[in-house]
Design brief:
Layout: E1 7-12, E2 15-20, H1 31-41, E3 50-55, H2 74-92, E4 98-102, E5 105-107, H3 109-116, E6 119-122, E7 127-129, H4 143-151, H5 153-162, H6 168-174, E8 179-180, H7 186-198, H8 202-217, H9 220-235, H10 238-248, E9 264-265
Parallel strand pairs: 2-3, 3-4, 4-6, 5-7, 6-8
Antiparallel strand pairs: 1-2, 8-9
Length: 266
């Protein structure tokens, strides 16, 4: 393991910060960084209700640090890719929501990392690209699975074939980001969202981020069954019963048109 500081972990009450801390290299992802990300998300403390993933410097991540590849044979390359899959799956499938703050370069492996998060907040400086196709490579961090679910396989093919770079506005229109805010406001918006989702029932949050994607990709009959099971589990908890009672007694806020957010959202 390198002695270089790769990521920072900061805990603030129910919120955790995971900070990519390699600004001098535009937060290019080394294998050590990816392993550290996987280690954190595989062992989140019980007191954490949401995680904000962001980066020092001007860029979220310029992608794979090509020095990490070395001189791998085909089998070694497959194992390398699988190690990234494992780390990013720990993020995508962890028990709490993860909100990523995107700015500057969100390229290649950096975009694959961002796609594993559950909510993405972008600033106007953010730009997106998959240069692997122009470099004789193919994505290896799960991008060929996660990004087509967001933007469509045809758009990802265009990005890889041509090296096309998407602006923050284009990324918002295609759904890469859920929120597009003013420059410098990304972290504040992400913390606001994290505080909101951390107030939810942990069981509901777990169901939303773990069951919902599987239901969406399942055969409808299997999806309906999984939905009914998760619904039954969620509503059976003491917390859910207490929240429903508060609503019935008028002690919980109702959904009103005044709750509309002025920020652009997907």
């Amino acid at each position: 393991m390198s002695s270089e500081i790769l990521i920072r972990i900061e805990i603030d009450g129910p919120l955790a910060h995971v900070v990519l801390d390699r600004a001098a290299k535009r937060n290019a992802l080394s294998d050590e960084m990816v392993a550290a990300i996987g280690d954190f998300f595989g062992n989140i403390g019980d007191g954490v209700g949401a995680v904000v993933l962001h980066a020092d410097g001007d860029h979220f991540s310029a992608g794979l640090d090509l020095a990490s590849l070395g001189d791998l044979d085909a089998f070694g390359g497959m194992l390398h890719s699988r190690s990234w899959h494992e780390a990013f799956a720990k993020l995508a499938n962890c028990r709490v929501p993860v909100i990523a703050v995107l700015k500057g370069a969100v390229i290649g492996g950096g975009l694959e990392l961002a796609a594993a998060a559950h909510i993405r907040v972008a600033e106007p400086s953010a730009f997106y690209a998959f240069p692997e196709g122009r470099r004789g490579l193919f994505v290896g961090g799960g991008g060929s699975v996660r990004l087509p679910e967001i933007i469509g396989a045809h758009r990802m093919a265009d990005m890889m074939l041509t090296g096309r770079v998407l602006s923050s506005d284009e990324g918002q229109q295609l759904g890469i980001s859920n929120y597009l805010v003013e420059e410098g406001a990304g972290l504040g918006k992400a913390l606001e969202l994290a505080a909101t989702v951390a107030e939810n029932s942990p069981v509901t949050n777990f169901a939303i981020i773990n069951a919902l994607p599987r239901i969406a990709n399942a055969h409808p009959a299997d999806g309906y069954l999984m939905e009914s099971m998760m619904s039954a589990i969620a509503q059976s908890t003491d917390e859910a019963k207490a929240r429903m009672q508060a609503f019935l007694e008028g002690r919980a806020a109702k959904v009103e048109a005044s709750n509309l957010d002025s920020q652009d959202s997907k």
